[in-house]
Amino acid sequence: MNIAIIGLGLIGGSLAKAFSEYTEHRVTGFDQNPAVVDSALRTGAIHQAGDPTALSQADVVYLCLYPEAAVSFVKQNASHFRPGGLVTDACGVKTFVCEQLTALSQLHGFVFAGSHPMAGKERSGFEASEASLFNGASYIIVPCEAPKLAVDTLKQLALEIGFGCIRVTTAAEHDRMIAFTSQVPHALACAYVMSPQCPGHKGFSAGSYRDVSRVARINEALWAELFLENREPLVEELTELIRHLDGIKNTIENNDRNALQALLRCGRQIKEALGE
To answer: For residues 24 and 65, what is the distance between their CA atoms, to the nearest angstrom?
Structure first.
């Protein structure tokens, strides 16, 4: 297949490297930074730099941009997409993206199905990308209104580059679960390190500090956009988290050992029941 990857950051660069290393597909790379494209060419991550002609020849287009930028790119370049070609994305929110890009696909004659590679690092950019990033990771597909053939194509491509688990779901379910599994931890980590005690943690911290604070090394422009575009599910999850934190805080303030133990036991039992 001819595969076009729009945006050669951590995810787009890793997709490019994975397709080039593990498959026979031909990869075309687009990035607003010419130096990144040159680096991708030099390292063999892509076979050619992107242009409108290459876009019109692409069987599959991966939009590895921020959500609003992904929609803008399609609006500006929809006339170049191959009729019947498959367009997907790698965005961390789906309701906003699917609504916009499904409408554009119907208007311009390409097929859109959303997707979300569940992989990442604290570092970003092409220099942090690697072909093995997706090995064993989950790949979420949100078909929107795409036909089964499009979903099957995305499944096959994901398996070819190392993904170990593929989930197919709706945009609403994706955004509800991502609010809990991804967005709340990032918000929590940022709030946690804002404590005035944080700068003095060395010598007093071990695994617990590292585990909770790790994702505070955040791309604030990207995550602010993701938080706001998923604000209703995220606010619900943050409210739930705050409710439980308040419950623990209240038992401590009231010196209520039995109630505190009960809350802590509940958390342990939930985690143990999941077998994790």
So the answer is: 24
Average per-residue pLDDT for the chain? 96
Q: Are 116 and 1 in contact (CB under 8 A)?
A: no
How many whole angstroms separate alpha carbon 185 and alpha carbon 122? 13
- Count the alpha carbons within 13 Å of 107 in the hemisphere toward its beta carbon: 11
Q: Do the Cβ atoms of 117 and 88 come closer than 8 Å?
A: no
CA–CA separation, 166 and 215 (whole Å): 24
Give residue 206's pLDDT band: very low, low, confident or very high (50, 70, 90): confident
* SS3 (DSSP) at 111: strand
229 has a pLDDT exceeding 80 = yes
Distance CA 107, CA 126 (A): 33
Strand partners, 115: 141
pLDDT number for residue 23: 97
What is the Cα–Cα distance from 198 to 206, expressed in whole angstroms?
Answer: 13
Return the structure tokens found at 91. 């965005």
Q: Is this prediction's pTM over 0.85?
A: yes
